[in-house]
Amino acid sequence: MTASARLPDRQGIGILCILIGMLAISIQDALIKGFSGSYPLHEIVLIRSLVALPFMFVVLQFEGGWKRLLSRRMPLLLVRALFIVVSNSAYFAALAGMPLAEANAIFFVAPLFITVLSIPMLGEKVGPWRWGAVFVGFTGIIVMLRPGDGIIKITALLPVLAAFTYAMMQMLTRRLGVTESASVLAISIYLTFIVVCVLMFLICGDGRYVDKVHPALNFLFLPWKVPPISDWPALGGIGILSAMIGYMLAQAYRMGEAGLIAPFEYIAVPLAVFWGFMIFGEVPDMTTWTGILLIVGSGLFIVYREVRRSRPISRPRAADTRPKLD
Q1: What are the DSSP calls for 80-123, one per residue?
Q2: Which helix (H) or strand (E) holds 238?
Q3: Do residues 101 and 293 make contact, with C-beta atoms less than 8 angstroms apart?
Q4: CA 67, CA 61: separation in Å to the nearest integer?
Q5: Digit-coded pLDDT (tens) for 170-223
Q6: Rg of the chain, C-alpha, whole Å
Q7: What is the pLDDT of residues 291-325, one digit of tens each?
Q8: d(CA 47, CA 241)
Q9: pTM
Protein backbone atom coordinates (compact mmCIF):
# COMPACT_ATOMS: atom_id res chain seq x y z
CA MET A 1 0.00 0.00 0.00
CA THR A 2 1.39 3.41 -0.95
CA ALA A 3 1.90 6.26 1.50
CA SER A 4 -0.85 8.29 -0.17
CA ALA A 5 -3.29 5.40 0.24
CA ARG A 6 -2.44 5.08 3.93
CA LEU A 7 -3.00 8.80 4.56
CA PRO A 8 -6.84 8.67 4.87
CA ASP A 9 -6.52 5.72 7.26
CA ARG A 10 -4.12 7.65 9.50
CA GLN A 11 -6.39 10.70 9.51
CA GLY A 12 -9.39 8.54 10.38
CA ILE A 13 -7.53 6.90 13.25
CA GLY A 14 -6.47 10.35 14.47
CA ILE A 15 -10.07 11.57 14.47
CA LEU A 16 -11.23 8.42 16.27
CA CYS A 17 -8.54 8.90 18.93
CA ILE A 18 -9.47 12.53 19.57
CA LEU A 19 -13.16 11.60 19.87
CA ILE A 20 -12.33 8.85 22.37
CA GLY A 21 -10.10 11.27 24.26
CA MET A 22 -12.82 13.92 24.46
CA LEU A 23 -15.36 11.32 25.62
CA ALA A 24 -12.93 10.22 28.34
CA ILE A 25 -12.43 13.84 29.41
CA SER A 26 -16.18 14.43 29.67
CA ILE A 27 -16.69 11.29 31.78
CA GLN A 28 -13.73 12.18 34.00
CA ASP A 29 -15.12 15.69 34.56
CA ALA A 30 -18.55 14.30 35.47
CA LEU A 31 -17.03 11.82 37.96
CA ILE A 32 -14.89 14.50 39.60
CA LYS A 33 -17.86 16.85 39.86
CA GLY A 34 -19.86 14.03 41.43
CA PHE A 35 -17.21 13.50 44.11
CA SER A 36 -16.72 17.23 44.77
CA GLY A 37 -18.90 17.16 47.88
CA SER A 38 -17.33 14.03 49.36
CA TYR A 39 -13.55 14.24 48.93
CA PRO A 40 -11.03 17.07 48.67
CA LEU A 41 -9.77 17.75 45.16
CA HIS A 42 -6.15 16.99 46.01
CA GLU A 43 -7.07 13.52 47.34
CA ILE A 44 -8.90 12.69 44.11
CA VAL A 45 -6.01 14.02 42.01
CA LEU A 46 -3.49 12.01 44.05
CA ILE A 47 -5.43 8.79 43.44
CA ARG A 48 -5.76 9.69 39.77
CA SER A 49 -2.02 10.30 39.42
CA LEU A 50 -1.02 7.12 41.27
CA VAL A 51 -3.26 5.04 39.01
CA ALA A 52 -2.20 6.76 35.75
CA LEU A 53 1.56 6.90 36.44
CA PRO A 54 2.27 3.15 35.92
CA PHE A 55 0.64 3.31 32.47
CA MET A 56 2.97 6.17 31.52
CA PHE A 57 5.99 4.21 32.75
CA VAL A 58 4.99 1.40 30.38
CA VAL A 59 4.73 3.85 27.48
CA LEU A 60 8.13 5.27 28.46
CA GLN A 61 9.75 1.90 27.74
CA PHE A 62 8.66 2.22 24.10
CA GLU A 63 10.04 5.76 23.87
CA GLY A 64 13.63 5.22 24.93
CA GLY A 65 13.39 3.81 28.45
CA TRP A 66 14.31 5.24 31.85
CA LYS A 67 17.24 7.24 30.52
CA ARG A 68 14.76 9.67 28.92
CA LEU A 69 13.88 10.90 32.42
CA LEU A 70 17.43 12.23 32.86
CA SER A 71 16.62 15.38 30.91
CA ARG A 72 18.81 18.47 31.06
CA ARG A 73 15.64 20.52 30.67
CA MET A 74 14.12 19.32 33.93
CA PRO A 75 13.67 22.87 35.38
CA LEU A 76 11.56 23.82 32.36
CA LEU A 77 9.67 20.53 32.62
CA LEU A 78 8.83 21.34 36.25
CA VAL A 79 7.63 24.85 35.39
CA ARG A 80 5.42 23.35 32.69
CA ALA A 81 4.09 20.79 35.17
CA LEU A 82 3.25 23.51 37.71
CA PHE A 83 1.23 25.37 35.07
CA ILE A 84 -0.87 22.27 34.39
CA VAL A 85 -1.28 21.67 38.15
CA VAL A 86 -2.74 25.17 38.52
CA SER A 87 -4.84 24.69 35.38
CA ASN A 88 -6.33 21.37 36.49
CA SER A 89 -6.90 22.55 40.06
CA ALA A 90 -8.72 25.72 38.96
CA TYR A 91 -10.85 23.87 36.41
CA PHE A 92 -11.83 21.00 38.70
CA ALA A 93 -12.59 23.42 41.54
CA ALA A 94 -14.90 25.31 39.18
CA LEU A 95 -16.85 22.11 38.49
CA ALA A 96 -17.97 22.07 42.12
CA GLY A 97 -19.60 25.48 41.85
CA MET A 98 -20.92 25.80 38.29
CA PRO A 99 -22.56 23.67 35.57
CA LEU A 100 -20.38 21.33 33.52
CA ALA A 101 -21.26 23.02 30.22
CA GLU A 102 -20.35 26.50 31.44
CA ALA A 103 -17.00 25.50 32.93
CA ASN A 104 -16.12 23.46 29.85
CA ALA A 105 -17.05 26.20 27.39
CA ILE A 106 -15.15 28.92 29.27
CA PHE A 107 -12.06 26.69 29.36
CA PHE A 108 -12.13 26.62 25.55
CA VAL A 109 -10.86 30.20 25.48
CA ALA A 110 -7.44 28.57 25.87
CA PRO A 111 -6.81 28.74 22.06
CA LEU A 112 -7.46 32.48 22.26
CA PHE A 113 -4.88 32.86 25.04
CA ILE A 114 -2.46 30.76 22.99
CA THR A 115 -2.96 33.11 20.03
CA VAL A 116 -2.25 36.18 22.17
CA LEU A 117 0.71 34.61 24.02
CA SER A 118 2.30 33.43 20.78
CA ILE A 119 3.16 37.08 19.99
CA PRO A 120 5.55 37.82 22.91
CA MET A 121 6.67 34.24 23.57
CA LEU A 122 7.06 32.81 20.06
CA GLY A 123 7.40 35.96 17.98
CA GLU A 124 4.39 35.08 15.82
CA LYS A 125 2.26 37.64 13.99
CA VAL A 126 -1.50 37.80 14.47
CA GLY A 127 -3.61 39.36 11.74
CA PRO A 128 -6.86 41.33 12.06
CA TRP A 129 -9.10 38.29 11.46
CA ARG A 130 -7.64 36.37 14.38
CA TRP A 131 -7.65 39.49 16.56
CA GLY A 132 -11.36 39.79 15.76
CA ALA A 133 -11.92 36.17 16.81
CA VAL A 134 -10.05 36.82 20.06
CA PHE A 135 -12.31 39.81 20.75
CA VAL A 136 -15.46 37.75 20.08
CA GLY A 137 -14.22 34.92 22.31
CA PHE A 138 -13.46 37.19 25.24
CA THR A 139 -16.86 38.79 24.77
CA GLY A 140 -18.26 35.30 25.29
CA ILE A 141 -16.37 35.11 28.59
CA ILE A 142 -17.92 38.40 29.74
CA VAL A 143 -21.37 37.08 28.85
CA MET A 144 -20.81 33.88 30.85
CA LEU A 145 -19.30 35.74 33.81
CA ARG A 146 -22.77 37.28 34.26
CA PRO A 147 -21.80 40.73 35.58
CA GLY A 148 -23.80 41.61 38.68
CA ASP A 149 -24.00 38.06 40.05
CA GLY A 150 -21.09 38.05 42.48
CA ILE A 151 -20.89 34.36 43.41
CA ILE A 152 -21.19 33.04 39.85
CA LYS A 153 -18.78 35.68 38.60
CA ILE A 154 -16.05 34.67 41.04
CA THR A 155 -16.50 30.95 40.38
CA ALA A 156 -16.52 31.47 36.60
CA LEU A 157 -13.11 33.11 36.82
CA LEU A 158 -11.61 29.74 37.75
CA PRO A 159 -11.92 28.18 34.27
CA VAL A 160 -10.52 31.44 32.84
CA LEU A 161 -7.47 30.96 35.07
CA ALA A 162 -7.38 27.30 34.01
CA ALA A 163 -7.41 28.30 30.33
CA PHE A 164 -4.65 30.88 30.78
CA THR A 165 -2.30 28.54 32.65
CA TYR A 166 -3.07 25.78 30.14
CA ALA A 167 -2.07 28.16 27.35
CA MET A 168 1.19 28.93 29.17
CA MET A 169 1.80 25.19 29.48
CA GLN A 170 1.27 24.78 25.74
CA MET A 171 3.78 27.52 25.01
CA LEU A 172 6.39 25.54 26.95
CA THR A 173 5.26 22.31 25.27
CA ARG A 174 6.11 23.78 21.87
CA ARG A 175 9.67 24.33 23.10
CA LEU A 176 10.06 21.07 25.02
CA GLY A 177 8.34 18.85 22.47
CA VAL A 178 11.32 19.14 20.15
CA THR A 179 13.56 17.14 22.51
CA GLU A 180 11.27 15.44 25.06
CA SER A 181 9.01 12.43 24.46
CA ALA A 182 5.28 12.49 25.22
CA SER A 183 5.73 10.02 28.10
CA VAL A 184 8.40 12.21 29.76
CA LEU A 185 6.12 15.24 29.49
CA ALA A 186 3.26 13.26 31.07
CA ILE A 187 5.36 11.63 33.81
CA SER A 188 6.78 14.99 34.91
CA ILE A 189 3.21 16.23 35.33
CA TYR A 190 2.01 13.23 37.34
CA LEU A 191 5.05 13.32 39.64
CA THR A 192 4.46 17.04 40.26
CA PHE A 193 0.80 16.35 41.01
CA ILE A 194 1.81 13.72 43.59
CA VAL A 195 4.23 16.10 45.34
CA VAL A 196 1.70 18.96 45.38
CA CYS A 197 -1.11 16.72 46.65
CA VAL A 198 1.05 15.38 49.49
CA LEU A 199 1.96 18.96 50.47
CA MET A 200 -1.73 19.91 50.41
CA PHE A 201 -2.47 16.97 52.71
CA LEU A 202 0.19 18.13 55.16
CA ILE A 203 -1.03 21.73 55.07
CA CYS A 204 -4.81 21.36 55.08
CA GLY A 205 -5.64 17.65 54.99
CA ASP A 206 -7.48 17.89 58.31
CA GLY A 207 -10.10 20.23 56.83
CA ARG A 208 -9.13 23.27 58.90
CA TYR A 209 -9.73 25.65 55.97
CA VAL A 210 -13.10 24.30 54.81
CA ASP A 211 -15.40 27.03 53.44
CA LYS A 212 -18.92 25.65 53.11
CA VAL A 213 -20.21 28.90 51.61
CA HIS A 214 -18.29 28.59 48.34
CA PRO A 215 -18.46 25.12 46.76
CA ALA A 216 -15.14 25.57 44.91
CA LEU A 217 -13.22 26.41 48.10
CA ASN A 218 -15.04 23.66 49.96
CA PHE A 219 -13.88 21.17 47.29
CA LEU A 220 -10.29 22.32 47.71
CA PHE A 221 -10.16 22.08 51.49
CA LEU A 222 -12.38 19.19 52.56
CA PRO A 223 -10.69 16.84 55.05
CA TRP A 224 -9.12 13.66 53.68
CA LYS A 225 -10.85 10.38 54.40
CA VAL A 226 -10.41 6.73 53.47
CA PRO A 227 -12.81 5.98 50.60
CA PRO A 228 -15.26 3.12 51.13
CA ILE A 229 -14.88 0.09 48.90
CA SER A 230 -17.93 1.17 46.88
CA ASP A 231 -16.13 4.37 45.72
CA TRP A 232 -12.86 2.75 44.64
CA PRO A 233 -14.03 1.61 41.17
CA ALA A 234 -15.03 5.18 40.24
CA LEU A 235 -11.94 6.76 41.83
CA GLY A 236 -9.68 4.25 40.11
CA GLY A 237 -11.62 4.81 36.91
CA ILE A 238 -10.70 8.51 37.03
CA GLY A 239 -7.03 7.48 37.00
CA ILE A 240 -7.53 5.07 34.10
CA LEU A 241 -9.43 7.76 32.19
CA SER A 242 -6.59 10.20 32.84
CA ALA A 243 -4.03 7.80 31.35
CA MET A 244 -6.34 7.14 28.41
CA ILE A 245 -6.78 10.87 27.80
CA GLY A 246 -3.04 11.49 27.67
CA TYR A 247 -2.44 8.60 25.30
CA MET A 248 -5.41 9.25 23.00
CA LEU A 249 -4.69 12.96 22.58
CA ALA A 250 -1.02 12.32 21.85
CA GLN A 251 -1.93 9.55 19.40
CA ALA A 252 -4.54 11.73 17.69
CA TYR A 253 -2.04 14.49 16.89
CA ARG A 254 0.60 11.93 15.95
CA MET A 255 -1.65 10.19 13.42
CA GLY A 256 -3.55 13.15 11.99
CA GLU A 257 -2.85 16.71 10.93
CA ALA A 258 -3.33 19.20 13.76
CA GLY A 259 -5.64 21.39 11.66
CA LEU A 260 -7.94 18.42 11.02
CA ILE A 261 -7.86 17.06 14.57
CA ALA A 262 -8.22 20.27 16.61
CA PRO A 263 -11.85 21.10 15.66
CA PHE A 264 -12.98 17.71 16.97
CA GLU A 265 -11.89 18.75 20.48
CA TYR A 266 -14.98 20.94 20.61
CA ILE A 267 -17.16 17.81 20.80
CA ALA A 268 -16.37 18.13 24.53
CA VAL A 269 -18.85 21.01 24.81
CA PRO A 270 -22.02 19.12 23.75
CA LEU A 271 -20.78 16.14 25.78
CA ALA A 272 -20.55 18.40 28.84
CA VAL A 273 -24.10 19.62 28.15
CA PHE A 274 -25.26 15.99 27.87
CA TRP A 275 -23.64 14.74 31.11
CA GLY A 276 -24.65 17.92 32.95
CA PHE A 277 -28.29 17.30 32.05
CA MET A 278 -28.33 13.51 32.47
CA ILE A 279 -26.47 13.36 35.81
CA PHE A 280 -26.92 16.75 37.48
CA GLY A 281 -30.12 18.05 35.86
CA GLU A 282 -28.33 21.14 34.49
CA VAL A 283 -30.10 22.91 31.64
CA PRO A 284 -28.17 25.81 30.01
CA ASP A 285 -30.16 29.06 29.74
CA MET A 286 -30.00 31.54 26.86
CA THR A 287 -27.14 33.48 28.44
CA THR A 288 -25.09 30.30 28.69
CA TRP A 289 -25.87 29.29 25.09
CA THR A 290 -24.90 32.76 23.86
CA GLY A 291 -21.55 32.58 25.65
CA ILE A 292 -20.94 29.02 24.42
CA LEU A 293 -21.61 29.99 20.79
CA LEU A 294 -19.31 33.02 20.99
CA ILE A 295 -16.44 31.10 22.59
CA VAL A 296 -16.71 27.93 20.50
CA GLY A 297 -17.27 29.89 17.29
CA SER A 298 -14.22 32.09 17.87
CA GLY A 299 -12.11 29.07 18.79
CA LEU A 300 -13.09 27.20 15.63
CA PHE A 301 -12.36 30.29 13.56
CA ILE A 302 -8.89 30.53 15.12
CA VAL A 303 -8.27 26.90 14.14
CA TYR A 304 -9.48 27.60 10.60
CA ARG A 305 -7.18 30.62 10.22
CA GLU A 306 -4.23 28.67 11.62
CA VAL A 307 -4.80 25.89 9.08
CA ARG A 308 -5.19 28.33 6.22
CA ARG A 309 -2.09 30.27 7.28
CA SER A 310 0.11 27.17 7.47
CA ARG A 311 -1.29 25.26 4.46
CA PRO A 312 1.35 24.80 1.73
CA ILE A 313 0.58 25.94 -1.79
CA SER A 314 1.80 22.73 -3.39
CA ARG A 315 0.10 19.36 -2.97
CA PRO A 316 1.24 17.87 0.37
CA ARG A 317 3.49 14.83 0.28
CA ALA A 318 3.07 11.83 2.54
CA ALA A 319 6.10 12.97 4.56
CA ASP A 320 4.26 16.20 5.37
CA THR A 321 1.70 14.35 7.49
CA ARG A 322 3.95 14.17 10.55
CA PRO A 323 2.59 15.96 13.64
CA LYS A 324 3.34 19.67 13.80
CA LEU A 325 4.36 21.35 17.04
CA ASP A 326 2.09 24.30 16.43
Answers
A1: HHHHHHHHHHHHHHHHHHS-HHHHHHHHTTHHHHHHHHHHHHH-
A2: helix 232-255
A3: no
A4: 10
A5: 888 777 766 777 778 888 889 999 999 999 999 999 988 887 778 888 999 999
A6: 20
A7: 999 999 999 998 887 777 665 433 333 333 333 33
A8: 12
A9: 0.86
